[in-house]
């Protein structure tokens, strides 16, 4: 069983729709959760960084963490064609020298104009 | 540009040669991380360094790979005697001082082995 599972897609939705992206994980030591956006031939760009269970909102983006279910989500409201990219979830435990992030494989998102 | 800078962006090597990848962290950041992204695979952690110290190299292959972050200058990821399987995108990230700071990534070096 992989540590982090993420549906690779592609996920295709019309412009203006609400997008839901998800990851599940198996390691209960993970405490910090991130979402990155990666455009083709570019590096991952940090979108959201959360610690506790619950919701965190930033503009059109909402990150949701449910530690009891080991499930995290990213919601994108009013999706735009410029949101078309690969979205990576990432997570890490609380430190102690183990600061490398564990990534999902990424979901390829396409927003149709 | 105050972001993470990686060079070169593209590197071509023949089998058996050495590859050197460079990473300058964001201004004010003293922690550097290297990741590898193979085709159709996710990003995999390789090594975490602070100035003049390797903190965690649990993701580094045991042979041919090494990393350093000297007191002056960029961090270097060095791959000796490259093989076809080393072809990948190599990303560097940096973070600030303090526990659990977010990591910010550069645009990577794409290594191709002929």
Helix content of chain A: under 10%
Order of helices and strands of chain B: EEEEEEEEEEE
| Oligomeric form | heterodimer
Q: What's the number of helices of chain B?
A: 0
Strand content of chain A: over 45%
Distance between the termini of chain B: 33 Å
What is the alpha-carbon Rg of chain A in Å?
Answer: 14 Å
The structure class of chain B reads mainly beta
Low-confidence stretches of chain A: none
Descriptive tags:
heterodimer, A: 113 residues, mainly beta, 6-stranded mixed sheet, B: mainly beta, 7-stranded mixed sheet, 49% strand
Task: Sum this structure up briefly.
The complex is a heterodimer of chains A (113) and B (114). In chain A, 0% of the residues lie in helices and 52% in strands. Chain A is mainly beta and 113 residues long.
What does this protein look like?
The complex is a heterodimer of chains A (113) and B (114). Chain A is mainly beta. In chain A, 0% of the residues lie in helices and 52% in strands. Chain A has no helices and eleven strands. In chain A, the strands form two sheets. In chain A, strands 2, 4, 5, 9, 10 and 11 form a six-stranded mixed beta sheet that branches. In chain A, strands 1-3-8-7-6 form a five-stranded antiparallel beta sheet, with no helix packed on it. The model of chain A has no long low-confidence stretch (mean pLDDT 93). With 114 residues, chain B is mostly beta strands. Chain B is 0% helix and 49% strand. In chain B, the strands form two sheets. In chain B, strands 2, 4, 5, 6, 9, 10 and 11 form a seven-stranded mixed beta sheet that branches. The chains are: A mainly beta (113), B mainly beta (114).
Summarize the helices and strands and which ones pair or pack.
The complex is a heterodimer of chains A (about 110) and B (about 110).
Chain A (H helix, E strand, L loop, with lengths): L3 E2 L5 E4 L4 E7 L6 E7 L6 E6 L3 E5 L2 E6 L4 E6 L8 E8 L9 E2 L3 E6 L1
Parallel strand pairs in A: 2-11
Antiparallel strand pairs in A: 1-3, 3-8, 4-5, 4-9, 6-7, 7-8, 9-10, 9-11
Chain B lengths: L4 E3 L2 E4 L5 E6 L6 E7 L5 E8 L2 E4 L8 E4 L6 E5 L8 E8 L8 E2 L3 E5 L1
Parallel strand pairs in B: 2-11
Antiparallel strand pairs in B: 1-3, 3-8, 4-5, 4-9, 5-6, 7-8, 9-10, 9-11
């Amino acid at each position: 069983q992989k540590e982090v599972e993420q549906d690779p897609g592609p996920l295709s939705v019309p412009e203006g729709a609400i997008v839901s992206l998800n990851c599940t994980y198996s390691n209960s030591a993970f405490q910090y959760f991130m979402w990155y956006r990666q455009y083709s031939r570019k590096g991952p760009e940090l979108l959201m960084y959360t610690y506790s269970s619950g919701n965190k909102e930033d503009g059109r983006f909402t990150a949701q963490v449910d530690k009891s279910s080991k499930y995290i989500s990213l919601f994108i409201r009013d999706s735009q064609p410029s949101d078309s990219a690969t979205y990576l979830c990432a997570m890490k435990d609380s430190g102690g020298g183990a600061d490398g992030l564990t990534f999902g494989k990424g979901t390829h998102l396409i927003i149709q104009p | 540009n105050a972001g993470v800078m990686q060079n070169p962006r593209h590197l071509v090597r023949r089998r058996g040669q050495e590859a050197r990848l460079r990473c300058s962290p964001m201004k004010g950041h003293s922690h550097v991380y290297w990741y590898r992204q193979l085709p159709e695979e996710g990003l995999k952690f390789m090594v975490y360094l602070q100035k003049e110290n390797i903190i965690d190299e649990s993701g580094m292959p045991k042979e041919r790979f090494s990393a350093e972050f000297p007191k002056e200058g960029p961090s270097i990821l060095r791959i000796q005697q490259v093989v076809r399987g080393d072809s990948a995108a190599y990303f560097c990230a940096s973070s600030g001082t303090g526990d659990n700071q977010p990591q910010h990534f550069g645009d990577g070096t794409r290594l191709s082995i002929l």
